[in-house]
Amino acid sequence: MQTFQIKFTFFYNKAFETLFHKHDAMKEQYDRQRKSNLQIDSFSRIFSIFCLKTYVLEKIEFNKIELIQHVKDAIRYENIDISFNDLIFDLEEAVCLLQREGLSYFFVHRSFQEYFTALFLAHCPEDVRDTFIDEVCTRHWDNVLSMLYDMASSQLEPSWVARNSDNYIEKYGLTSAKIHPLFGRFRSIILNKNSNGFRVFHLSAGPAWNFISAMRRFYPEIMQDFGTLDFDELEKFAISAGKRVGDDSFIREIDIGINSLEGNTFEILISDIPMDILEKTKITKFTENEFKSIKAIRSGIGKDQEMKSNFLNSLFKES
Hints:
It is a single chain. By secondary structure, the chain is α+β, with helices and mostly antiparallel strands. It folds into two domains: 2-129, no CATH class; 152-319, no CATH class. 58% of the residues lie in helices and 12% in strands. It has twelve helices and seven strands. The chain has helices spanning 2-21, 40-56, 64-78, 84-94, 110-122, 126-136, 144-171, 181-185, 209-218, 232-242, 275-281, 283-318; strands spanning 61-62, 98-101, 104-107, 186-194, 197-205, 251-254, 264-269. The chain has a four-stranded antiparallel β-sheet with strand order 5-4-7-6. Helix 5 (110-122) packs across helix 7 and helix 7 (144-171) crosses helix 9 (209-218). The chain is flat and about 70 Å long.
């Protein structure tokens, strides 16, 4: 996976360089002159801010007013004296990172937004990067965190990864003195009841959900899926518990705001489900394997940091 990610981010870097320096095939007749006169590093930094802002806002399409505002904000952040109109021209006409269709502007490919967002985060202050990871780690549909890890693993591992892994390992574990990892990963089980009976709809997030989600993006080979969960016994348990729905019951009806979902929706806290039922679903083994993987990752980081520290110390002693 690491080798693939290196090629992945390398591809976007080379693609950007090609677009930035690209001339028309008939360059002797037409040259895509950039109006902003920015060098490639300055252009990249400004576009990274633009991408970061629009990514956080989950915007991939803009009207002209929105585009101007986002571009102005990026220029202001970098404190560079250029015309926003010139930069918009470059983005659309010269470098071709944005395209216009009717009254709307789009990224030529959404992955460019992801790449430049990751590029900004790879070089920003640690506290900004940490906040970003915490806020967007559940966006499983894109590659920002994977790209970020590829670009800045040497910065992420001794800081965000090590710190959060230590907190996780300190709180959760596989001994009686620790909270079982299951209760950090999941808070409750959401079930849908319709004419076919109870069916598990999804598992709601526990306090360690975001951390584990990010770790799965950083270490996909290690934090792999650990088998298929079996909810048959849990659904049987829900049928029994469902007969006692009320104020004094541990199964309660909830509204999750999905109008298209047929039937009623119920929630059972993980802590209210007997452990033998949970074990039959394989969910306990699943979270135990996640815990062991995180512990192994943390141990590897510690050994790597110790090796590097010893190497540098030996250099200073030799000098």
